[in-house]
Design brief:
This protein is of the alpha+beta class. The chain has four helices and 17 strands.
Length: 262
């Protein structure tokens, strides 16, 4: 089977995009894993199908690089919005459906996309970390000297701990900077550090707001290994956040055709 695909990236978090508006493409976990493999396939952190959905501009179906369908991906949400624009489905705004519910997105100048994230109505506060769901589950912990921090090994310990080993969790390590925060993420499904994680950046920004790390109220500038993002939000009490927007680049890289074994 020949598969036509597009490659996009958002702050180094890269994705394979497939136009499945005809609902004619079904991929197995093994095929998705092959496509995302950086040595034998195209190479990506995940794969998305763009499908039609009544009442929406499109539907986003997201798979991790291990081939399994996953929860919401913030950088992926911005990239699929840019993809929908490239296909001529939308102009400057869209309303799409993802696994965690409806989302809005706006295409801005200079290749930036602003994506509305799911409301967060509860944050678990622990002695040395926070735990919350921003469309995907996230463990957030403040550390020192984040540039030299062993994200993979420390993240893996938490992701495969007794509490999380069955369902998994994303693990984010954060450090305050002069302008905002620096975030590094160990991502489940990829089982490695990614250059950026949109839902993780969102979770980290909300935690930074709770911790008093922000210089501007309800607005967080975030540095990741792959680039810079912004998170804006409104807060009711300490653990209830709404009107959350994740803003950053969503860039087309290349397109092509690949032969897939049936």
């Amino acid at each position: 089977m020949q598969l036509n695909f597009y490659k996009y990236q958002g702050t180094g978090n890269d994705f394979i995009l497939v136009d499945n508006r005809q609902h004619s493409i079904t991929l197995t976990p093994e095929q998705i894993n092959f496509l995302c493999d950086r040595r034998f396939g195209i190479g990506a952190d995940g794969l998305m199908l763009l499908e039609l959905e009544p009442g929406f501009d499109f539907k986003m179906v997201y798979f991790n690089s291990d081939g399994n369908q996953s929860s919401m991906c913030g950088n992926g949400g911005r990239c699929i919005t840019a993809f929908a624009s490239q296909l001529g489905l939308i102009t400057d705004k869209c309303h799409f459906l993802a696994i965690d519910g409806p989302h809005e997105a706006t295409l801005l100048q200079d290749g930036l996309v602003s994506l509305k994230m799911a409301d967060v109505k509860e944050v678990e506060i622990n002695t040395d970390h926070y735990y919350l769901n921003t469309g995907s589950p996230h463990y957030v912990k403040a550390v020192s000297d984040i540039k030299n921090f062993d994200v993979v090994n420390e993240g893996k310990k938490i992701r495969y701990s007794e509490r999380f080993k069955a369902e998994g969790t994303n693990v984010n390590f954060i450090e305050r900077t002069d302008e905002g925060i620096f975030v590094r993420t160990y991502e489940r499904g990829v089982e490695d550090e990614t250059f950026s994680c949109g839902t993780g950046v969102t979770a980290a920004a909300l935690v930074a707001g709770m911790e008093g790390m922000l210089t501007t109220k309800n607005h967080c500038l975030v540095k990741t290994l792959g680039g810079n993002l912004e998170v804006k939000f409104e807060k009711v009490l300490d653990r209830n956040f709404y009107n959350i927007w994740l803003q950053g680049p969503a860039e087309f890289v290349f397109k092509g055709t690949i032969e897939l074994k049936e």
